[in-house]
Amino acid sequence: MKYAKLTVASEFKVGKTDDRIYGSFVEHLGRCVYGGIYEPGHPEADENGFRRDVLGLIKELNVPIVRYPGGNFVSGYNWEDGIGPKELRPRRLELAWGTTETNEFGTDEFMKWCKTAGTSPMMAVNLGTRGPDEARQLVEYCNHKGGTYLSDLRKKNGSAEPYGVKLWCLGNEMDGPWQMGAKTPEEYGRVACEAAKIMKWTDPSIETVLCGSSSWGMKTFGEWETTALDLAWDHVDYVSMHQYHGNNDNYLENFLAKGVETDRFIESVIAALDYVQGKRHSKKRIDISFDEWNVWYHSNGTKFEKWSEAPHLLEDVYNYADVLVVGTMLNSILRHCDRVKIACLAQLVNVIAPIMTDNGGKAWKQTIFWPFMFASKYGRGYVLQGLTDTSKYDTKWYTDVPDVDTAAVLSEDGEELTIFAINRDLNDDIVLETKLCDFEGFVPVSHTVIEHSDPYIKNTRDSQPVAPSEKKELPEIDGRIMKTKLGKMSWNMLRLKKVK
Ligand code: AHR
Questions:
Q1: Mutate to test the pocket of ligand 1, among 27, 95, 215, 289 (most ligand atoms within 8 A of CB)
Q2: Helix (H, G, I), strand (E, B) or coil at 447
Q3: What single string gives the DSSP state of each residue in 97-160?
Q4: Does the beta carbon of 70 lie inside 6 Å of ligand 1?
Q5: Is 294 helix (H, G, I), strand (E, B) or coil?
Q6: Terminal-to-terminal C-alpha distance of the chain
Q7: Whose CB among 241, 265, 313, 486 lies 3.0–4.6 Å from 423's, allowing a Cys bridge?
C-alpha cells in the first residue's frame, strides 16, 4: 500500500525565501530576444518594439530578476557593439551558437525592457574573450551617475539616470570546453577575483556571482568550486550552479526522479562553499545563485542554417511530464531556500522557455509555465521543514526516490499555508496525510491540480491541454490531520488559510 505523510510546524523553518529565486534568463540565442521579447513591426509591439503580448505573460510569472545577455553568448560579446545609434551597430559572427548577431538590441534596450516588464536586470560580463577592464567599464556605463566618458555616453544614449544594476555574473560556464575563452579553475579564479575587485571599486554597492561548475557531471566539479572560490573569496557574494534535466532515453520513472539529483547537486555545492569558508576561518558565508535550471532535451539535434539571424534554436516544446520535473526542481529550490538565494529558470521566451511565440503571430503558455507561475505566486514566505515520510522506488540511476515530493511555505504574515506536492507514481493515487502541528484555525481553501493521463501531451499554439484546474472537493480535515488524494502522476497545490 502506497502512503505519504507530511508533518509541518510553523516554528520549524528552513528559512525565508528570497524573491530572486523566481528569476529568469534572456540570452541572445535563437529567438529569445529577436522574435521573443523584441519584435518591432509585430502588431503587439510597443513604440520600443517590445511585444506586449509577451510582456503580459511575463507579468503573470512575476519574475523579479532577469539574467542577460548570456549564457554562452556573453563569452564573445562586446557590449559596446550594442549601444548608440542602431544603424551604426556592427553585425557580428556569434560563435557560441553559430549565428549572426545584428546588435539591434543591446544594454540600453534591455534596461528599458526590464522597466517595462517590472523586473530587474542581472548582468553577465564577458570573461571569456575579454576581461576585467571591459567588465568594469560596463559597470561604469550602467551605474555611474555622470561626469565621466562612459556615464555621459549612457546619458547621450538616452538614460540620464544610472541603471543601478545590483547583480553581476563574472562570466558564464568558464569550466566548459565549449565556452569561448574557457579556463582552468586557477586561471578563472584569478581573473574573476580581479574583475570583481575593480567592478566593486567602480560601484561598491554591487554583488557578484562567481561561476561554479556548468553541471554536476563535470569532471572538475567540486575542485572547480573550491579552487576558484578560494582565489576570488574576498570579492564574490554567490557561486552559480546550472542544471538541465533530460529524458533522452524515454524512461519516465527515471525522468520523474531527476529532482533528487537537484537536491544532491545543491547539497554538494553547499558543502564545497562551506569547505572554503572553514578552510579560510572566515565569517563570510557564500550562497548559491542557481542561475540556469530547467528541463532541456526536446530540441536536441535541431538543424538550422549556419550564420542565420535569430533561427529557431533550443525551442523545446514541453509536455506534461516536464511539469512534474519542473515542479520537483522548484520544490528542491524551496527546500534549500536558506542557501539558494537566486535562481533563474532558463530561459524566458522561445529558448527552453515557459513562453512560446510565432514571429508576427501568437504568444502562448508552454506546460511548464504553470508550476513556475504558481510557485512564484504562492511560494514566497517561510519554507517549513516539512518532514515527508513516503513510499519510495528505485530506477536504473536512482534509489529511494520518494513517491511524493513536497514543499510547504507559510506566508510572511503567517495567515496562509501553501503545500506543493507532486505524486511521481505512474499508476497509483496516493493519499497525503498532512499533520498540521500548530495551525489552529487553518482551513483548506483550495486544491489546484495540473494533471493529465498522457505524460507526453504538449501545449501548442492552437491547443493547450495542460492547464491547471480546481478540485471541487476540498481536502478532509480532522483535528490536526488533513487528508488529500494526490492523483497518480500529478502536480498539486494545497492552500490553507487562517479563519478569524
Ligand atoms: O541556456 C542555454 C545555454 O546553456 C546557456 O547559454 C549556457 O550557459 C548553458 O550551457
A1: 27
A2: strand
A3: TTEEE---S-HHHHHHHHHHHT-EEEEEE--SSS-HHHHHHHHHHHH--SSSHHHHHHHHTT--
A4: yes
A5: strand
A6: 38
A7: 486
The dihedral through the CA atoms of 169, 174, 179, 181 has a sign that is positive
Q: Which residues pair with 101 in a beta bridge?
A: 92
255 CB contacts (<8 Å, ≥6 apart)? 245, 246, 247, 321, 325
Per DSSP, the three-state class of 163 is coil
Q: Is 27 in the pocket of ligand 1 (CB under 6 A)?
A: yes
Ligand 1 centroid from CA 122, angstroms? 15
DSSP state of 202: H
- What distance in angstroms lies between residue 71's CA and the mean position of ligand 1's atoms? 5
List the grid coordinates of 171.
562570466
Q: How far, in Å, from the CA of 280 to the mean position of ligand 1?
A: 32
Amino acid at 256: L
Catalytically active residues are 173, 292
CB distance 434 to ligand 1 below 6 Å: no
Euclidean distance between CA atoms 365 and 450, whole angstroms:
14
Domains of the chain: 2-10+384-498 (2.60.40.1180), 18-378 (3.20.20.80)
Strand 65-68 and strand 355-357: the pairing is: unpaired
Measuring from atom 8 of ligand 1, which residue has the nearest CA? Answer: 71
- The pLDDT averaged over each successive group of 10 residues in the chain (500 residues) is 91 97 98 98 98 98 98 98 98 98 98 98 98 98 98 98 98 98 98 98 98 97 98 98 92 96 98 98 98 97 96 98 98 98 98 98 98 98 92 94 97 97 97 95 96 97 97 93 97 95
Ligand 1 atom nearest the C-alpha of 294 is 1
